[in-house]
Amino acid sequence: MNRATPRLRALAALPFVLALAAHLLVLALFHDRLPDPLATHFDGGGRANGFTSPTAFTVISTALLLTLGAGWTLLVRRSALWGAWATAGFAGALLVLLVRDNLDAADPAGVSSPLVNLTVAAAVGGLLAAAGLALTRLVPPEDAAPAVDPDGPRLPLGASEVAGWTRATGSRPLTVLAALALVAAPAVLLLAPWPGALLGLLGLVIGVPGLALARIRVTVDRRGLTVRPALGSRPRIRVPLDEVAGADVRDVSAVADFGGWGYRVRAHRTGVVLRSGEALVVRRSGGREFAVTVPDARTGAALLNTLAARHGKV
Predict the structure, then answer these.
(1) Does pTM surpass 0.85?
(2) How far apart are CA 48 and CA 35, in angstroms?
């Protein structure tokens, strides 16, 4: 599987460089028309209820764009390049609109930020997403994943024997990060100046699914392959036996192969990736692959092949 090429990383970083340059240019051109402090946080009605000095606002907004850009540059894949451009367009537009709303304000408390700003920012994000999608053609396609071995491992079972296999596995770093994100999110949403409060929303987006997938149980039985949270039955991913075209074991890199941790979607493959290393990989009858990182993956793959063969698929 391809790692991100230098060209792909450069194209992922480019929109954030452009957004930061535009934002800093606007601040420089209109600094003498901005109040001190700036209105940077607004209630549900768009009325200012949080304020930040111009210097602090410049530092926070710059850090926000740099952090988003670094994340996309590190984890980007060809199929998701449009997402980097959409994110940069949305965040950059919100920052510029925030500066516009503060222009020539005699009293920062009287500044308002209309909800239409979100619509405008979303439109800018959509336009840049289209640009990012068009630029995808400049990046060579990703290599296909190594094929699942059609003669993969098998577990000998008699005609009347039944068997099941299950393993629980987890990621301590993912558990800690998800928990911290959930704890910090409410405080950031309530107390951080806008647009820093966007980090609070990001905390919720990361924390909820991250905690659900931080520890999982992987099971192979007469129903096929099932992956679910260790402490609950939902959300659940199942590959039934009649969709199993083969199963094998493969070493994967969480970042290089799947772009990170958690539930991952890539071209022609999906996965639940909690770490780098041994993974049970299933080739589905439609050609797509599903991978889950789990200890003793060879036993799970061998049993799945045997049950699928008994079911008439492998």
Answers:
(1) no
(2) 13
